[in-house]
Amino acid sequence: MFITKFAIPEVIFGKGAIKYLSQCAGRLGAQRVLLVSDPGLENAGWVDVIKDQLKENALHCAYFSEVNSNPRDWQVHKGANLYKESGADVIIGLGGGSPIDTAKGIAVIASNGGRINDFEGANKIMRPLPPMIFIPSTAGSGSDVTQFCIVTDMERQVKMTIISRSLVPNISIIDPNLLVTKTRELIVASAIDALAHAIESFLSKLASPFTESQALLAISLILENLQSALETRDPDALEKLSIASTAAGMSFSNAGLGIGHSLAHSLGGRYDVLHGLVHPILLPVIMKFNTVACRSKMAVIGGKILGPRFCSDDILAEQGIAELQRLFQGFGVATRLRDILPDDRGLEHICKMAVPDACTVTNPRPVDWTDLLGICEAAW
Amino acid sequence: MFITKFAIPEVIFGKGAIKYLSQCAGRLGAQRVLLVSDPGLENAGWVDVIKDQLKENALHCAYFSEVNSNPRDWQVHKGANLYKESGADVIIGLGGGSPIDTAKGIAVIASNGGRINDFEGANKIMRPLPPMIFIPSTAGSGSDVTQFCIVTDMERQVKMTIISRSLVPNISIIDPNLLVTKTRELIVASAIDALAHAIESFLSKLASPFTESQALLAISLILENLQSALETRDPDALEKLSIASTAAGMSFSNAGLGIGHSLAHSLGGRYDVLHGLVHPILLPVIMKFNTVACRSKMAVIGGKILGPRFCSDDILAEQGIAELQRLFQGFGVATRLRDILPDDRGLEHICKMAVPDACTVTNPRPVDWTDLLGICEAAW
Q1: Which of A52, A181, A240, B374 has a C-alpha 20 to 30 A away from that of A5?
Q2: What is the pLDDT of residue A108?
Q3: Contact status of B3 with chain A (Cβ, < 8 Å)
Q4: Which CATH number is B210's domain given?
Q5: Same domain, yes or no: A109 and A214
Q6: Which residue among A1, A10, A217 sits closest to B213, beta carbon to beta carbon?
């Protein structure tokens, strides 16, 4: 095995864990925090919960909420200005991947200067970031535990992947109670995003036993709990999805992802589609494409999907992918690219933009843009 | 599930990883380091490897090596004096559990003052410690990733358990090449210590899915690789034991241990026996004692030991423990307490000292000293 790294934040996990936020901020020396969130979290009441708690603990709070789904470069720069003007010393990100990635971008610009575009790719961040605490409100992005940050370059219309050890926050507070207020569509999209994180990172060229064990935990928990989380909003099932998302984040942060995410970033930059809705469409097709390069690992995934059975790796891999496709169809989400894109004229451009994405490097099977086009056509 | 924490250091793992030490120390702001190790590591040449590397990178190095197996309170205080006198700013611990626990103790006293005995128990360390980097030379203690520190109180003749989040180092550099120079006895004792960490923490009252996945990874890897690591010193098998020890450390640091370690600490404080040689004797007896409180989890462990088979939890649990006992006998280590103790007159005292150990709290079945005496008698 090659030399490998495994770095995660301190994780505080459980229903009600949000109550430890001020204590954690104090531990990091906070006196004035910048809270980054979005209108959805405001409406659900969680922004007020946090503001009240910070106030009770005499922590000054500046608030930034100009965050889109697929956050934009100019939003990061505007937030960094607020960080500086407010004299903040700790950044708190509350939300799905978008507010948390915005918070990461703000931290980068506040401490390193420049434009967020300067940091695209791996290991471009040179100066230490301000202390960060993240509180995820979806069970999907995993951004609260990872060294990834995704921001849209509005001029090039592409989602930039920024990867750095320093993007791992100090503390991630994961409170499954925040999931209860989510829509069905957001729960499905988030859970399948987490499943894609787990599967892509399990198959990654940089996977290690430390990441593989977390990836397999995530795969099992999502397959066992997504259905009942959707049907009954069972708090225990939602908690399991939260555990899965966190475990998948620990895995992909350290092992990287694959071409499913390269294509999702490229599609998201061009068409502003909800990130998690791309994976039910692409994941099975990409698993078929990758199988030749990682047959025995694909069989392990097949075994998780199908349960234990005595058959060859080939059959386990193939039948696992087919069953996954059936499961996705059962969730009532789009399963063809044509269902979410206006037309297929942009596909060549999408695929060419996806090749240099940082996630392509760790894909188990090498690709060029024509391979990606073949995948998109198979998924059309 | 209750609110749980999962905190580990940044882990750099792999053959040759030791070459990153100076770079890591630089990242933590080091100019003058205190290196803590012992004569065994000196003889194996590793201390010189590190001193040379630090010198090449213009890092001043003070060196402390007055470390016993079962390190002593006065050794910690002497090392803390050297830390201060040498003007060190980063502590590097190189070795098995003993030099690393000594390094932790030095870090506590250097930053918090007082006597090491003042910090016995959980969460008694109030001020931040100096940056720490640990390089384990055995695949067993896991101390390089954990929030545990074990130091012997020479007056009371007891191994004190000190637990604090701040004892997790900044970075753990795990290089399986260091294992090649170990004796057969040390490899067995270390691996069975790691196995005890994995099993006890898997059964702990504070176990979470994050710790359980690492514990099960460790159990599988040790059972699959210990035999060939001993027979052939196969570097791949030694690497797997290293992964297992690290994974077990991640698990027990966050989930805690059980009465096997309470008794091992008590025995080690009184008789100075090699810690890892206590577990092959006590672990199966304690697993039998605990089964009533955690039958289905004991069956999961049984399944790992025996491989998949269709039978009841009761039978899996029972047959797994019996098979583990047979495996230990095959390794040629002592399997009865009478083989390692001079007589049985001290047992009552040993058991009374073990009850207040921090590891007793997380044992799945509550105990008093008479329960522990029953276990020691069954293992006599």
Answers
A1: A240
A2: 97
A3: yes
A4: 1.20.1090.10
A5: no
A6: A217
Considering only the beta carbons, identify the residue of B5, B12, B216 that sits closest to A10.
B5
**Do B43 and B164 share a domain, yes or no?**
yes
Which domain-ending residue is among B126, B160, B178? Answer: B178
Instruction: Please give the residue of chain A at the shortest CA–CA distance from B242.
Output: A209
Q: Do B14 and A3 touch (CB under 8 A)?
A: yes
- The closest CB to that of A217, out of B3, B20, B209, belongs to B209
Q: Which domain holds residue B31?
A: 10-178
Same domain for B319 and B336:
yes
Chain B: residue nearest A14 by CA? B3
Does A68 touch chain B if contact means CB atoms closer than 8 Å?
A: no
Quickly list DSSP for A32-53.
EEEEE--HHHHHTTHHHHHHHH
d(CA B72, CA B84): 19
Domain shared by B19 and B145, yes or no: yes
Total tally of structural domains belonging to chain A: 2
- Contact of A7 with chain B, judged by CB distance below 8 Å, is answered with yes
Q: Which of A150, A178, A206 is the last residue of a domain?
A: A178
Q: Specify whether A294 is located in the same domain as A224.
A: yes
- A1 within some domain: no
> Coil, strand or helix: which one is A251?
helix
pLDDT in tens, chain B (380 residues): 689 999 999 999 999 999 999 999 998 989 999 999 999 999 999 999 999 999 999 999 999 999 988 899 999 999 999 999 999 999 999 999 999 999 999 999 999 999 999 999 999 998 889 999 999 998 888 999 999 999 999 998 888 999 999 999 999 999 999 987 788 888 999 999 999 999 999 999 999 999 999 999 999 999 999 999 998 888 999 999 999 999 999 999 999 999 999 999 999 888 878 888 999 999 999 999 999 999 999 999 999 999 878 889 999 999 999 999 999 999 989 999 999 999 999 999 999 999 999 999 999 999 999 999 999 999 99
Q: Mark B106-134 as b/e (b = at least 16 C-beta within 10 Å).
A: bbbbbbbeeebeebbeeeebeeebbbbbb
Could you report the per-residue pLDDT of B299-356, keeping only the tens digit for each? Answer: 999 999 998 788 899 999 999 999 999 999 999 899 999 999 999 999 999 999 999 9
Strands (E), A168-255: 171-174
Taking the CA of residue A235 and the nearest CA in chain B, the distance in Å comes to: 11
Pair A236, A110 in one domain: no
B213 to chain A: closest CA residue: A213
Residue B150 lies in a domain: yes
Q: Positive or negative, the Cα torsion across B321, B326, B332, B335?
A: positive
Q: Determine contact: A10 vs chain B, CB below 8 A.
A: yes
CATH of residue A107's domain is 3.40.50.1970
Chain B residue numbers with beta carbons less than 8 Å from the beta carbon of A214 are: 210, 213
Q: Which H or E run contains B81?
A: helix B73-85
CB–CB of A3 and B16 under 8 A? Answer: yes
Give yes or no: residues A36 and A89 share one domain. yes
φ and ψ of A349, to 5 deg? -60, -45
Tokens of A6: 């495994």
**B110 contacts chain A (CB < 8 A):** no
How far apart are the two ends of chain A, measured CA to CA in Å? 38
In a domain, A4, yes or no: no
Pairs across A and B, CB distance < 8 A: 87
* Cβ–Cβ under 8 Å, residues A163 and A146: no
In this structure, the answer to whether residues A193 and A317 fall within a common structural domain is yes
Determine, yes or no, domain membership for B331: yes
